[in-house]
């Protein structure tokens, strides 16, 4: 099933997540171009994607949409280094990062004023989306949209696959994400530091904890630190976790002292 219009979608950064998105977009009939600090010429050739080593040539190539698929930590450096004077026409810029206020602010600061800005976060990845995207959430915020048709055509990429389309502000997203995604990653990293492993007598609850540790450990520490550094709500969640652990420890020690004295 294809979306309503074939788009020329340019990707800046072509790591695993960009490759994952590109395969579905190609299947839908979209034309994909890419540029990246690493050389993906061979892989792009295999996928039928035009890869540009030169960023100016990439921006001159007439993309309908430019998709920012860099890491959270590298976005600022990458976007500020773009030779934006090479753009031939007003273009829709879209990010797919796991934090939202940070890329929104950067795009509004750096991009030409006639460029449209759409912030999105596909709440899935190569593992959770390997059997299709149906019912998986796609968060989006129409930050600065003049060309509604182009924006709608791009969002249709996800709607066509059956994604749960969730429109919310970047601020709302980051607040929710700090409570869910960042907290999950933090707990998983703590369990990894403790070298938690399965035992012969695991309960179902413990098996789920091991799964959390394993799934979060598959993601890079750069992603995890990006969730903290560039989400202003994450610091409070980390403090909340520390306070909660201290409170539980205090209650346990108090109970232990009461039992010793009885």
Automatic annotation (TrEMBL):
PROSITE patterns: PDH_ADH (PS51176)
Taxonomic superkingdom: Eukaryota
Keywords: Coiled coil, Oxidoreductase
Domain Prephenate/arogenate dehydrogenase as annotated: residue spans: 7-262
GO biological process, one term: tyrosine biosynthetic process
Pfam families linked to this entry: PDH_N, TYRAAT1_C
Entry annotated with the keyword Iron: no
GO molecular function: arogenate dehydrogenase (NADP+) activity; NAD+ binding; prephenate dehydrogenase (NAD+) activity; prephenate dehydrogenase (NADP+) activity
Coiled coil: 231-258
Cell wall biogenesis/degradation among keywords: no
InterPro entries tied to this protein: NAD(P)-bd_dom_sf, PDH_N, Prephen_DH, TYRAAT1/2, TYRAAT2_C
Protein's recorded name: Prephenate/arogenate dehydrogenase domain-containing protein
Organism, scientific name: Salvia splendens (Scarlet sage)
Lineage of the species this protein comes from: Eukaryota, Viridiplantae, Streptophyta, Embryophyta, Tracheophyta
């Amino acid at each position: 099933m294809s979306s309503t219009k074939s788009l020329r979608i340019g990707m800046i950064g072509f790591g695993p997540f960009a490759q994952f998105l590109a395969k579905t977009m190609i299947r839908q009939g979209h034309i994909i171009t890419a540029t990246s600090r690493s050389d993906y010429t061979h892989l792009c050739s295999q996928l039928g994607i035009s890869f540009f080593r030169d960023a100016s040539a990439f921006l001159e190539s007439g993309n309908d949409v430019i998709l920012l698929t860099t890491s959270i930590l590298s976005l600022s450096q990458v976007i500020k280094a773009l030779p934006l004077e090479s753009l031939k026409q007003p273009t829709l810029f879209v990010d797919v990062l796991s934090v939202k206020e940070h890329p929104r602010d950067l795009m509004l600061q750096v991009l030409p004023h006639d460029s449209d800005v759409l912030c999105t976060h596909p709440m899935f990845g190569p593992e959770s989306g390997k059997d299709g995207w149906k019912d998986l959430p796609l968060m989006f915020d129409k930050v600065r949209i003049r060309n509604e048709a182009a924006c709608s055509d791009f969002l249709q990429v996800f709607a066509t696959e059956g994604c749960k389309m969730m429109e919310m502000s970047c601020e709302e997203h980051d607040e929710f994400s700090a409570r869910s995604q960042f907290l999950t990653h933090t707990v998983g990293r703590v369990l990894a530091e403790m070298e938690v492993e399965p035992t012969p007598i695991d309960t179902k609850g413990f098996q789920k904890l091991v799964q959390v540790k394993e799934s979060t450990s598959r993601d890079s520490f750069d992603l995890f630190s990006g969730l903290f550094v560039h989400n202003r709500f994450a610091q409070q969640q980390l403090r909340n976790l520390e306070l909660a652990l201290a409170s539980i420890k205090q209650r346990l020690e108090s109970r232990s002292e009461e039992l010793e004295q009885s």
